[in-house]
Amino acid sequence: MSAHTGSCRCGLIATEAGAEPFLRSYCHCRDCRKQTGAPVMAFVGFREKDLTWHGEAKTWRAGGVVRSFCGHCGSQIGYRDDKLPGEVYLALGFMDEPERYPPTVHAFSRRRLPFVHMADDLPHFDGFSVDR
Questions:
Q1: Half-sphere exposure for 70 (CA within 13 Å, toward CB)
Q2: The sheet that has 51-54: what strands, in order across it?
Q3: In this structure, are residues 112 and 105 in contact, taking their beta carbons and an 8 Å threshold?
Q4: How many C-alpha atoms does 23 have within 13 Å on its Cβ side?
Q5: What is the rounded distance in angstroms from the CA atom of residue 33 to the CA atom of residue 76?
Q6: What is the model's pLDDT at position 63?
Q7: Residue 115 Ramachandran class (φ > 0 left, ψ -120 to 50 alpha, else beta)
Q8: How far apart are CA 88 and CA 39, in angstroms?
Q9: In this structure, are strands 58-62 and 14-17 parallel, antiparallel, or unpaired?
Q10: Does residue 127 register a pLDDT over 90?
Q11: Which of 28, 80, 92, 100 has its CA 20 to 30 A from that of 17?
């Protein structure tokens, strides 16, 4: 399989992963909706040690989570959680070939907006999809 790459809209921030992702998930929580401006977020989890970065993202911290974005084009890049050291969760839209990373679970399913209907048989979690 070819490398896993991601980049922002303008191309100033990019990454390449030297290993397979360990998680692919939808998230229905309010924080992710606020961050993305979308009714649901999808993300891909990689180990920090497996990522090579090009360019420097802007960040902001809230509630133990550091979110990153491109300071030029504004594209969301992803986030790191203080309770999950060594892990980076990249926004599916940041990935250059998002079709390669279909989510395998839903997190915070109880918080799903009532008009969002996703016909799949994926596991649903009422909270986080990973142990924190």
A1: 22
A2: 4-7, 14-17, 51-54
A3: no
A4: 22
A5: 12
A6: 87
A7: alpha
A8: 22
A9: unpaired
A10: no
A11: 28
Q: Can you give the pLDDT at residue 131?
A: 62
Q: What is the largest CA-CA distance in the chain?
A: 39
Name the residue among 104, 120, 112 with its Cα closest to residue 44.
104
Neighbours of 81 (CB within 10 A): 16
Torsion of CA 54, 57, 105, 87, to 10 degrees: 70
Q: What is the pLDDT of residues 94-120, one digit of tens each?
A: 999 999 999 999 999 999 998 999 989
Residue 72 DSSP code: T
Tokens (6 digits) for 81: 């959680």
Interior angle at CA 125, CA 124 and CA 127, nearest 5:
150
Q: Kindly state the tokens that stand for 102.
A: 């279909």
Q: State which amino acid sits at residue 4.
A: H
Residues 6+ apart with CB under 8 A from 54: 13, 14, 15, 16
Written as one letter, the residue type at 83 is K
- Model confidence, pTM: 0.91
What confidence score (pLDDT) does residue 119 get? 86
Give per-residue pLDDT as tens, 54-97: 999 999 999 899 999 999 999 999 999 999 999 999 999 999 99
